[in-house]
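note to self: dont lose this again. the chain is below, predicted strucutre after it. 700 aa total, dont forget to put it in the shared folder this time
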Amino acid sequence: MLIKYPTVFHITSGFLLVYLMVFPTWANGQLTYCEKLEKLIDLLDKYHVEPVASTEENSKIIFNDILDDLDPNGYYFLQPEIDELRDYESTLLQFPYTQACVFYKEVENAYGNALVRTDSILEELEKHSFDFNKNELFYYDESNPYESSSSQLYQKWRMRIKVRNAVLSANKIDTDSSSVEDLNPKDNIDDAIEYYRCRIMDYKLFPDKVTNKLENTLLTAYCYAYDPHSTYFNENQHDNFISDLSGESLSYGIELSNSKDGEIVIEQIVPGSPAWKSNQIHKGDRIVSVKLENDKEIATTCATARTLQSALVFPTETLIKLKLKKAEGTLKEVELINEILENEENIIKSYVLKGEGKFGYIGLPGFYTEWNGENRLGSANDIGKEILKLKRENIQGLIFDLRYNGGGSVEEALQIAGTFIGEGSLAIEKEKDSKPRLLKDPHRGRVYTGPLIVMVNELSASASEITAGILQDHNRALIVGNRTFGKGTGQVIVPLDFTLSPDQHSMSINDSTAGYVKFTIGKYYNLKGSTHQGVGVSPDIEFPSLYDKFTYYENDYTTYIEPDSIIKKTYYTPYPVFPIQELKEKSASRIKTESRFAKIDSSYDVIEKHNSKYDSLNLSFYPLVKLLLKTDELLLDYDQLKELKHSDFTVSTPEYDKVIYQLSDQKQKIRDKTINEIQGDFLLRETYHIMMDLINVNNE
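---
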């Protein structure tokens, strides 16, 4: 596959990435860690949009990130081992990286010893007689997590096993504390120990996994020093990252990965899949449990992301129940039915909201594209199709929902903005040592010209922020919701061992046994020269936040790229300004009378007060299980506060789609569930009324 050089270094963002096309320089055999490190730093210094200085401060960032990944809570290393490693914390960026290479060997030895010691502790705990009625408090000192001796570490693990045992027990019953007394404290103790020991056994059986983990951890820590979105992949990770789920088998459309603490998380959602259509599952969600329709639980005690992924492959249509811990801390229970993905006609689905006004609704979880197809059709094309369906319904306005949209292809984001704006400049891109470049939609013409509202929240990031920002800057859409995440950068993935000749006019992609690097190559700005990087897009009408107290924003990362501004001559004609102040006042008046917002605030305060009990945890079994169940109950109640039954409007599918749903009972079931979710979304209800206000004000 060939690509012209001028288009190599753009347009990427989020989980769908353009791959930099290069000719790799192959080494004889596998590269050593030191060779990889030198190539990595050289690559980042040459091409990263903001290379970092080789300072002691940045070296300490790398050191701390390594410890945070390998042992964030102090269950493996002892304090004397950390003290020895700390001798290197200021020297990890010193050229020619001799100290950094020695440091790798020191970490390798210390981590190997730590795994052996931990395995011995867990083996001893298998013989331990646990006292489940003992009232003892478990403290965690975040500022000093490491123990001084093996005996202290043994006690720390003993208490950790008791906590894990209670968690497993709580997961096996409903959030009804009256059934807690029926539990046998001993039933899950073996699984609790196995949960941790099986991961160490995996390393003992496959030593290469330890080497891969250490290399990945250390090299990724160097990437993190440049910015939080740059990372290193070994060859297997890269293959997993870019591989699609098979289109020839039934699938739920979720790709899994393991977090650094061993939990299984949603890494990616396949566009058009059951998970995508549910609009309830998002990247970063943690899997608490998986059950079949008969409530039989799929074992996850020793499961890795790959083994659970395999366990979720069924030859026939199968319903599963996922219990998820959301990024904002709430719990969500989602039902999915697997289906074949390859024949899906339209990935995006639109709906009609009919009440006093008749409006279209389109939700987009991510910006996707088909990079291997000749026509490279993606979300912009599918959005256009749905808009045409809605126009046949004679809608008076369109609500475009970008909440929870973590990004994707910036090219698609630009095309979608162009769908509503037409021709002209949309945004500006700036790469290292290059002049700012205007970004335009290559396809001229507007598909939709009517009233438009875009919904965003704290988890709208990257490409979704670009679209929202463009539409806001042009006065083409009213933006409602909450300040967005604040990621205004784009990334590429390249093989680690490559050369790029300045006079190279076309390049082809190859695999790399040395691994791959995803790094930040560009920054995005609006047509006035400012950026949403680190600050987010501020809505025209702000809702009381559901997640602000839970959310981790871009500028919360230690190494985030700080916002700046550029000067670039641009010419564009914005649409007439919205009557924002009048619309704000009308919305505020409704929100003031909506008790649900007050309930959410008070509910959060209850959760915060409840969570303070974890600062010093009583490990007596029954009180601990009740505490865990109460936490689940509060989080589920908090999530359900967002659901609202009302009669302000009804939700239906466009007439064009109704025949499709009639052909499949399963599709009807999924459609009906989605309609109920949309109907119960009280923030969408408020957005509906804002649209009604906008139309009425415009008609005055």
